[in-house]
Design a protein that fits this description.
Chain A: Residues 571-709 form the Rab3GAP catalytic subunit conserved domain. Chain A: Belongs to the Rab3-GAP catalytic subunit family. Chain A: GO terms for molecular function: GTPase activator activity. The complex is a heterodimer of chains A (917) and B (199). Chain A is built from 30 helices and 21 strands. Chain B has 199 residues and is an alpha/beta fold. Chain B is built from eight helices and six strands; from the N terminus they run βαββαβααβαβααα. Chain B has helices spanning 22-31, 75-79, 94-98, 100-110, 134-143, 159-171, 174-177, 182-192; strands at residues 8-16, 44-53, 56-65, 84-90, 117-123, 147-150. A six-stranded mixed beta sheet of chain B has the order 2-3-1-4-5-6, with helices on both faces. The termini of chain B are far apart. The chains are: A alpha+beta (917), B alpha/beta (199). Chains A and B meet through α18, α19, α20, α22 and α26 of A and β2 and α8 of B.
Chain lengths: 917, 199
C-alpha cells in the first residue's frame, strides 16, 4: 500500500495543466474504473449458463480522438423473481465468488469452446473485459498498430494504478483486416492479447499441424516432459446444397378451388449448413497436414445444423404474393380503373337489348334451374385470358359440375401448347399440399362466424379463392383480375335475369348483417330473385292471362284487376283462415289472413342510410315514413275480408289490442285520430298483386349489379378483402393442423392469428391485416420448408446408401420444426437462437449426411470446409520453467481470404514465484 | 373526464311483446313523461339522449321497436350494432312473459355484438292485477344471464335505474364500445403475453 500512497503523493504535486494526452487518457480510464467499481478481485460467472451484457459505457478522449469504452460482463440467467416488502421486483441470480485474476479461470475453462457467439470471447477466451473502440467509427479510426499500442499503453497505466484485473481489448481496425490488441494483469502475471489478420495464409499454416507449430513458436518455451498436453477444439463449416430444379405449378380445376399455398419456381431452402465440431482432444489424437486429414465429418463430436436462405425466398411464396394486392388494395397501375376501363381493347360494349329480352321473357314457366348452357354465353370480353376458360372457371364457382372436366381439358390443352407435360411433377411442395382443402368440405373446425366475411362455401367465399388464384395464375396478367371480376358480375346478371338462384349454397334470401358488405350484396340479389319468383307465382295464381303480359303489376293495374279470379263474395288475395275467428260484424264469415307483401331486405349500407333518414325526421313524419307496410297489410286485409272492420284487422295484426273476451278494442286504439285508425279509414281494399311494391326487387337488383359492374379494381378488392384473408387464414390453419409436421406451438400461434382476423374483419383494421399477413408469410415459408425437409427425409428411406435404423417420426419432426424455427428466427429476430446440435451417427445425423451426400467417398476427398476454426489451449510455465503454469490460448479462423489468428498469451512476472522442484 | 364531451355513443334496443310499455318506458326515461294513451308504435322510433355514468358522459341512441309480429320482418337490422338490449314484459300479462324465450332467442341470433348486455324489465308493477311474480322474473333472468329489474313507467319506479345499470354494465365491457381504439386494447394484451415470440 505504501507504493500507491507514494504514487498518489507524487501525482498531487504534478502540474496538471501540462499533462500529455496519454496521461489525460489514463486518468480518464482510471476514473471510470473507480466509478464503475471494477478494481480488485472479480466474481467468476458459472461456465455453463451465461450471457454477455454491456454493463457500462462511456466516451473519453485521447488527444483528438474520441474513444468509447464499454464494460462487458457475463451474467447468469435469472433464477427467480421475488417481491420485496414494498412490492418491488427482486431478481435472484446465482451467487458468484470473487476469485483472483478471473481471466485465468476463464482461459483455463476449455469448455467455453465455440459456445459463445461474441467475437471477443471466441477470439481471446475472456468473458469479462473492457472494450475500447473509436467513438465515431470510421472517421476516428485508429489506423496503425503503433497508435493502438499507445492507447493500450495509457490504459495499462490506468489498470496498474487502479489494480483492475479486468482485461482491456482495443480495436484498432475492424472488418476484414481486424486488429485487436489487449492487456490484462493482476500484478503478478499479465496477459497480452494480439491478432494477426492475413488475406492469404501460407500452405504450411493452413492446417492443424502448422497452426500447432505456430502456437508453440509464439509461446516460445522449451518443452518439458511434465508439460500438460495441448488441448484442441475445432469446428469446420460445411454447406451442403440441396438439389432443386425450378418448377412450375401444374394446375387443374380442383386446384383453382383451393387457396394457393406453398412456394413456386424454387423451394424456399436449398442450403443446409453443417458445422462439425471436434471437441477437446489431445494434440496427438488428430492429424491434419497438407496431404492428410483425420477430420471426417461423419465422425465429428457433434454437428450444429442450420438452414441458409440464399436469396429472398419470400417472393417465391404463392399465398404471400397473392395477398399483396389485398394488403394494399391500390397496388398495381390499373387499380383506380373500373374493370371495363382496365380491360381496354379486350372489352367491347354490346347493346343491352339481349339482356332486356331475357328480362322480359323470363317468368315462372320458363325458369331454368340448371346451369346456363356454356355455349350460349355472348362474350363482350375477349381477353386477356381465353373467354371460354374464364367462363368455365366461373361456372365452377357457381356450382356447375360439368365445368370441372371441361376446365381440365382446357388445362391439358394449355400445357400441351406450352409443350409442358402435365406430369411435370417437380413441384414437390405443391404435390404435398394437394388434397387438403375442398370447397365442399363440410366440416370446419374454425368458428368462422366470428369473422365479418362470407360463409363457407358461399359464392363470395369461392370468388375470394378464385381472386387469390388469379393473382398468381401463371397465364394471367394485370388485366386478368378485372376480366374475372367482370365475367363474374356478368354471370350474376344472367342468373338474376333467368330467375336462377344466385348462390346455390345460400338460397334463403336472408341478409346476414354479421357478414361482410359483399356477401350481403349477394344475399340481397338472391332476395331479389326470390321476390320476383314469388311475384310471378302470385300473378299466375291470380290471373288466367299469359304470363308475360304481367311483368310489372303497377303498370297493369287496371287490366289485372279485370282479370282477377275473384274469391267468393268478391274477396281477393286470401292466404288462409285466421283460426276460427269470425268477422266482428258478420259472425257467419271467417276472417282470412291476406297474402302480404314482404318488406324490402336491407344491407348494412342501406340500413345506415335508412336510419339516418328516419333519425332526421320529426316524430310525425317518421311514423308516416314507416306507414307503408301497415297500409299494405290493411289494403290486403280489406281485400281478403270484404265487410271487415278495424276490430277484425287488429285481431290478426295486433291481437293484444283486441280483447277476445269483451270484444273490445284496446284503449290506445280508441284514441281519436290515432294513426292506425286514420290509416284504416283511408285505405281501400287492394290485394297484394295490385299494390305498389314495398320491395322493389327490380330496382335493387339493378343497383347491385351496376355497383359491381362499375367498381374500380381497388373497390372490389376492398369488398373482397375480409373474405380473402379469411380463406387465406383457413388454408394456413388447415395445413398447420393436417400436415405431417404439425407443431403444437404453431397451432397455438394460429389462435392469436384468428383473434387478429376477428378484429381485422370487424373493424377493417389495417394494422391487424398487416400483422396477419406477416403471420401467413411466416407460416407459409416455414411450412413449405418443413414439408420440403420432410420429403428429403422421406427420400432417404428409399436410398440404397442409407443403412441401419431410420429416424423415428417424433424426433424427426421435432428436429425439422426446430431447424425451421431457428432459421426463421435468425432471419427475423435480433435475439440469438439456440444451436441445434445432433450426433452424426444418430439416425437423424445419418439421414442428413445421406441427403447432403456426405457419405459419398469421392465427394469426401474433395470436400473442403468453407471455414475452419481451431482453439488451442496449453497450460504451460512462461516465460521460464521457474514460473507458475498459465493457460495459453490461440484461436484461428481460416476462410478463403479472411484468416485471423488470435493469441492470448500470459506470462508470470513475479520472480518470487521461482520455485525449484 | 370532461363533462361536455361524450366518450362514446351507445345503441340501446327495446324489445318485447306488443303493449307491454316499451315506448312508455323510453319516454319516461328520456322526456320524463307518461301518457296513458300512448299510441301503438309503428315500425321503429328513436330517441337520443345522454347520461353520465361514473363520470363518463355517454350518448344514448334508444331504439323503440313495435311489438307486432308483422312489424318484425326487419328485426335483424334493429339488432345491428346494439350494445344493450332491454327486453320488456308486462307483469299483468302472463303471455308477454311466456313469449320471453322467443325474444331471447332472437337476441342471441341477431345481435352482431357478441357480448351485448341484456336486461329484463318487468313493467307495470304499479298495477293491481299482477300475473307474473318477481321470483319468476328473477329465475328467468338468471337462466338467460341478463340484468333484471322491476319497473313502472307510470310511477317512474325503477326506470332511471334500468338505464343506469345497463349503461354501467356496458361501460365496464370496453370491447363493446371502444372499437375506435382496438389496437390500443389489443396491444396491451400482446405486451402482457411476452414479446419474445417471433410470430
Amino acid at each position: 500500500m505504501t507504493d500507491s500512497d507514494e504514487e498518489n503523493d507524487i501525482f498531487e504535486i504534478n502540474d496538471f495543466t501540462v499533462v500529455t494526452p496519454l496521461e489525460e487518457c489514463s486518468a480518464a480510464v482510471e476514473h471510470f474504473i473507480q466509478k464503475w467499481g471494477l478494481y480488485d478481485r472479480r466474481p467468476l460467472c458459472s461456465p455453463q449458463n451465461w450471457t454477455l451484457q454491456v454493463k457500462e459505457s462511456c466516451t473519453i478522449s485521447f488527444g483528438e480522438n474520441k474513444l468509447k469504452i464499454q464494460y462487458i460482463q457475463p451474467v447468469s440467467p435469472i433464477i427467480e423473481t421475488k417481491f420485496d416488502s414494498d412490492g418491488n421486483d427482486i431478481v435472484v441470480v446465482e451467487e458468484h465468488q470473487n476469485v483472483p485474476f478471473a481471466l485465468v479461470e476463464d482461459l483455463k475453462n476449455i469448455k467455453l469452446g465455440f459456445d459463445p457467439n461474441d467475437g471477443i470471447v471466441l477470439q481471446f477466451g475472456v468473458r469479462e473485459y473492457l472494450y475500447v473502440t473509436p467513438a465515431d467509427g470510421i472517421a476516428n479510426q485508429i489506423t496503425t498498430e503503433a497508435e493502438c499500442d499507445t492507447i493500450l499503453g495509457a490504459i495499462k497505466l490506468a489498470l496498474h494504478a487502479s489494480r483492475c484485473e479486468i482485461p482491456v481489448i482495443v480495436l484498432a481496425k475492424d472488418g476484414e483486416q481486424q486488429i485487436k490488441h489487449g492487456y490484462g494483469t493482476d500484478g503478478i502475471s499479465s496477459y497480452n492479447f494480439s491478432t494477426v489478420s492475413l488475406r492469404t495464409i501460407s500452405q504450411q499454416h493452413s492446417h492443424l499441424n502448422g497452426l500447432m507449430a505456430m502456437f508453440k513458436e509464439h509461446i516460445n518455451v522449451k518443452s518439458m516432459p511434465d508439460d500438460d498436453e495441448i488441448r484442441i477444439t475445432t469446428r469446420f463449416h460445411n454447406f451442403a446444397e440441396i438439389r432443386t430444379d425450378s418448377f412450375f405449378r401444374t394446375l387443374n380445376a380442383r386446384k383453382l378451388t383451393m387457396v394457393p399455398f406453398g412456394s413456386y419456381h424454387y423451394l424456399p431452402i436449398n442450403v443446409i449448413s453443417v458445422v462439425a465440431t471436434w471437441k477437446d482432444f489431445r494434440e496427438d489424437v488428430m492429424t491434419e497436414n497438407e496431404s492428410h486429414s483425420d477430420f471426417d465429418i461423419n465422425h465429428a463430436t457433434f454437428w450444429t445444423i442450420s438452414l441458409e436462405q440464399l436469396d429472398d425466398s419470400d417472393k417465391n411464396l404463392i399465398l404471400t404474393s397473392a395477398l399483396k394486392a389485398y394488403l394494399r388494395t391500390n397496388e398495381g397501375r390499373l387499380s383506380d380503373k373500373t374493370s371495363k376501363e382496365a380491360l381496354g381493347t379486350f372489352y367491347t360494349p354490346q347493346g343491352t337489348t339481349a339482356a332486356f329480352d331475357k328480362l322480359t321473357g323470363g317468368n315462372a314457366m320458363t325458369l331454368k334451374i340448371g346451369g346456363t348452357p356454356i355455349s350460349e354465353i355472348i362474350s363482350e370480353i375477349n381477353g386477356p385470358m381465353s373467354p371460354r376458360f374464364v367462363n368455365l372457371w366461373i361456372s365452377l364457382m357457381f356450382g356447375d359440375i360439368r365445368a370441372e372436366d371441361l376446365l381440365n381439358d382446357e388445362f391439358k390443352q394449355m400445357y400441351s401448347l406450352q409443350n409442358r407435360s402435365t406430369k411435370h411433377m417437380n413441384d414437390i411442395v405443391f404435390v404435398i399440399f394437394e388434397d387438403l382443402l375442398y370447397p365442399d368440405h363440410p366440416q370446419n373446425s374454425l368458428n368462422t362466424a366470428l369473422f365479418k366475411a362470407a360463409r363457407q362455401p358461399s359464392l363470395g367465399w369461392k370468388l375470394a379463392i378464385a381472386m387469390l388464384n388469379i393473382q398468381v395464375f401463371e397465364n394471367a396478367n394485370v388485366r386478368s383480375e378485372p376480366q374475372l371480376w367482370l365475367e363474374f358480375v356478368k354471370r350474376l346478371r344472367e342468373k338474376y335475369e333467368n330467375n336462377e338462384d344466385i348462390d346455390i349454397c345460400e338460397t334463403s334470401g336472408q341478409i346476414d348483417l354479421s357478414q361482410c358488405f359483399f356477401a350481403q350484396k349477394l344475399q340481397l340479389l338472391q332476395a331479389c330473385v326470390i321476390a320476383r319468383r314469388k311475384r310471378y307465382a302470385l300473378l299466375e295464381n291470380a290471373t288466367d292471362v299469359a304470363h308475360d303480359e304481367f311483368f310489372d303489376a303497377e303498370d297493369d293495374f287496371n287490366e289485372s284487376l279485370r282479370n282477377l279470379k275473384l274469391e267468393e263474395g268478391g274477396a281477393q288475395g286470401r292466404l288462409k283462415k285466421l283460426g276460427n275467428a269470425k268477422l266482428f260484424k258478420n259472425p257467419n264469415e271467417s276472417i282470412y289472413v291476406p297474402i302480404t307483401q314482404d318488406r324490402s331486405p336491407m344491407t348494412e349500407d342501406m340500413l345506415d342510410e335508412q336510419t339516418d333518414y328516419l333519425c332526421n325526421l320529426n316524430e310525425e313524419d317518421r311514423i308516416l315514413a314507416q306507414l307503408e307496410p301497415l297500409r299494405s297489410d290493411m289494403m290486403g286485409f280489406k281485400a281478403a275480408n270484404p265487410g271487415c272492420t278495424i276490430e277484425d284487422f287488429l285481431r290478426w295484426h295486433s291481437p293484444k289490442d283486441f280483447d277476445e273476451s269483451t270484444g273490445e278494442v284496446s284503449e290506445r286504439m280508441r284514441i281519436p285520430d290515432n294513426t292506425w285508425l286514420k290509416c284504416w279509414n283511408t285505405t281501400k281494399p287492394v290485394a297484394v298483386i295490385n299494390q305498389a311494391r314495398l320491395f322493389n326487387d327490380t330496382k335493387l337488383a339493378e343497383e347491385v349489379l351496376e355497383l359491381f359492374e362499375n367498381a374500380t379494381i381497388e373497390q372490389f378488392r376492398k369488398w373482397l378483402k375480409p373474405i380473402v384473408f379469411v380463406v387465406a387464414f383457413q388454408r394456413v390453419a388447415r395445413v398447420l393442423h393436417e400436415n405431417s409436421v404439425r407443431c403444437f406451438d404453431w397451432i397455438q400461434k394460429s389462435n392469436d392469428a384468428m383473434r387478429m382476423l376477428v378484429v381485422a374483419t370487424n373493424s377493417d383494421n389495417e394494422a391487424k391485416y398487416a400483422e396477419l399477413s406477416n403471420w401467413i408469410t411466416k407460416s407459409e415459408i416455414c411450412l413449405s420448408a418443413a414439408l420440403h425437409l420432410e420429403s428429403l427425409f422421406n427420400s432417404v428411406s428409399s436410398s440404397p446408401t442409407m443403412l441401419g435404423p431410420l429416424p423415428e417420426s417424433q424426433p424427426k419432426r421435432e428436429f425439422i420444426l426446430k431447424l425451421v424455427q431457428n432459421w426463421y428466427d435468425k432471419l427475423h429476430s435480433p435475439e440469438p437462437v439456440d444451436d441445434l446440435n445432433i450426433k452424426p451417427q444418430d439416425p437423424i445425423g445419418r439421414a442428413v449426411a445421406n441427403f447432403c451426400d456426405f457419405e459419398n467417398q469421392e465427394d469426401k476427398k474433395n470436400r473442403i470446409p468453407e471455414r475452419k476454426e481451431y482453439i488451442l489451449n496449453w497450460n504451460v510455465k512462461r516465460p521460464s520453467e521457474c514460473n507458475y503454469k498459465l493457460p495459453q490460448r490461440m484461436y484461428a479462423c481460416l476462410e478463403n481470404e479472411f484468416n485471423h489468428i488470435c493469441f492470448s498469451l500470459g506470462h508470470d512476472c513475479n520472480f518470487n514465484n521461482t520455485i525449484m522442484d | 373526464m370532461d363533462e361536455g364531451s361524450t366518450i362514446t355513443t351507445l345503441k340501446i334496443l327495446i324489445i318485447g311483446e306488443s303493449g307491454v310499455g316499451k315506448s312508455s318506458l323510453m319516454l319516461r326515461f328520456v322526456d320524463d313523461v307518461f301518457d296513458p294513451e300512448q299510441a301503438a308504435t309503428i315500425g321503429v322510433d328513436f330517441r337520443v339522449t345522454s347520461m353520465t355514468i361514473d363520470g363518463n358522459r355517454v350518448k344514448l341512441a334508444i331504439w323503440d321497436t313495435a311489438g307486432q309480429e308483422r312489424f318484425r320482418t326487419l328485426t335483424p337490422s334493429y339488432y345491428r350494432g346494439a350494445q344493450g338490449v332491454i327486453c320488456v314484459y308486462d307483469v299483468t300479462n302472463r303471455s308477454s312473459f311466456e313469449k320471453l324465450a322467443h325474444w331471447m332467442t332472437e337476441v342471441d341470433t341477431y345481435c352482431t355484438k357478441e357480448d351485448a348486455v341484456k336486461m329484463l324489465v318487468a313493467n307495470k308493477i304499479d298495477m293491481p292485477n299482477r300475473e307474473v311474480s318477481r321470483e319468476e322474473g328473477l329465475k328467468f333472468a338468471k337462466r338467460h344471464r341478463t340484468l333484471f329489474i322491476e319497473a313502472s313507467a307510470k310511477t317512474k319506479e325503477g326506470v332511471q335505474c334500468t338505464f343506469e345499470e345497463l349503461i354501467e354494465k356496458i361501460i365496464q365491457t370496453p370491447n363493446l364500445w371502444d372499437n375506435e381504439r382496438p389496437r390500443f386494447v389489443l396491444g396491451q394484451t400482446e405486451n402482457n403475453g411476452g414479446g419474445s415470440c417471433g410470430c
